[in-house]
C-alpha cells in the first residue's frame, strides 16, 4: 500500500506538530488535548494529500502547491507523526467524555500505527502506480482547482507552473530506489507510461489538465493557464514518460510480489494490517478465504443443480458466462445497461435504509488517458452534494463483460454500495479527523456486503448475477496472500482468478497488476464483508423480531469510515441498548 503523498504548504502546521508536549499542554483538559491532536493530524493529513481536502470538503490554507516528495520532507512528516504518537499514548481515552472525542482517539491511534508500520515499504522509492499514482490525481486537482477570485487564479498558475519541479523530484526518488533495490513491476510501469503519454500528448483544449482554464471567464488567465499546460506541464510529463520508458523500465523488477523489494515481507505484513485493520497473518487470511470460497462453491453447486441440472463448477460458470443473453453487443450498451441498473438499484434500496442521499451519481466511461491502462472500474466520491459523484466504468472491456457481472459492479459502486455509503456519510455531522479517515476494509467490505443486499432487494434481473455474485467473493483473500506471501507465480494467480468465471484473460491480467501495486488491498473486501455479515447475524440472533435491518445499516454507516474494531464496538453497543429497551419494556 503506497504511503499517502506529501505536500509542501503547511510550514506553520508542520512547525506546530513537531512541538513535544510540555507543561502547558499537560495542564490542558483531556478533551482539549485530544482536539489539538486531531487538528494537528488533519493539518498533516491534508499536507500529505491536498486533493483529499477538495474531495472531502476540508478547507486548505492555499491552492498553490503539490505534495512534497523530497527525503527531508518525508523525514519531517515522520517526525511529526512520532511526536503525535508519543503524546497520544499519554492520553487516557476513558477520560474523554463525548463519542466524537472517543472516536477521534480511536481513529488517530489507527492512523498513526498504520503510517508508522508502512514506513518499511519505502513506497516513495517505487511510486510508479497505475491505480492511484500521482499522474492520475492531476485530473482531480484540475477538476477542483478554485479559480473564482484573482488570488485563486494566481495560486493556480503557481501550482501548475511548479509541476516540472514535482516531476523531477519523483524521478530523483525513483533513481534512488533503483540504486537501493526498489522498483515497481515492469508490467505496471508499462501501464503508467500509457497513462502519462495520454496526458502529455493531449491537445490543450481537450486536456483534462486544462479544466481550470475552461471554468474561468477571465480571458487573460485562460490564456496564461493554457500556456502553462502546453509549455511546462506537458513537457514535464513527456520527460517523465521518457524516463520511465528508457531508463526505469529496463531496470524494473519482473516479479509481481512485493517480497521482491527489500523488506518486502515486512511491507506486506504492514500493508495487510493497514488495509484490513485486523491483526491477521497472511496464512490466516489465506485459510479463511479458502474456507469461504469452498462454501460459496457448494452454494453455487446447489443452484446449478436446480437451474441447469449440473453441479460442476467450471461447466456451470462457463455456461453462465457464454450465454448469449448474458452478453453485450456494444460498449454503449454496457454503459446504458449499467445506468439502468443504478436507477433500478436506487429505487429498490429505499427499503433498506432510514434515509437516502440526494447527491447525484453519474455513470461514465473512463477518460481517454485512462483507457487501455489496466485500471479497474471505480467510484469517485465528493463531499459537496451539489457536485456529482462518478461511477467510472471500464467499458472498453465490453466484449469480455457479462450482464450479470455488470449488475454486480453497478450495485457495488452505486446503490446500495459505495455511493449510498459515502454520500450518506457526507450528510452526517463528523469531526474533520473522522472525515479524513479511511480504510479499505470498511469501504470495500460494505461494497461487497451490498452485493448481497442487492440480491435481497431483488435488484438482479436474472440468475446469472446471483451465480456470479457467489463465484468471486473471498478469492482476493486467497490470491493476494498467495501472490505476495506464499510464493504464487503470476500465471498461478491468474489461473485462480479466471476460475471464478468473473473475469476474462485481459481482466485477470489487469487484476494481478493491480494486486502488485496494492499489496493486501484485495483481501480487504471480504475481510470487511465477513465482519459486517457476522455482526448482522449477531444482531439478528440477539434481537430476534426486534431486529430492524434499516436501523442496523444506519448504525454501520452513520459514523463514516471506521476500523472494524470500532464498527464492532458500535454495533454491539447498539445491540445492548436495544436489548435493554426491551427488558425495560417487559417490566
Automatic annotation (TrEMBL):
<protein>
    <submittedName>
        <fullName>DUF885 domain-containing protein</fullName>
    </submittedName>
</protein>
<dbReference type="InterPro" id="IPR010281">
    <property type="entry name" value="DUF885"/>
</dbReference>
<feature type="signal peptide">
    <location>
        <begin position="1"/>
        <end position="26"/>
    </location>
</feature>
<keyword id="KW-0732">Signal</keyword>
<dbReference type="Pfam" id="PF05960">
    <property type="entry name" value="DUF885"/>
</dbReference>
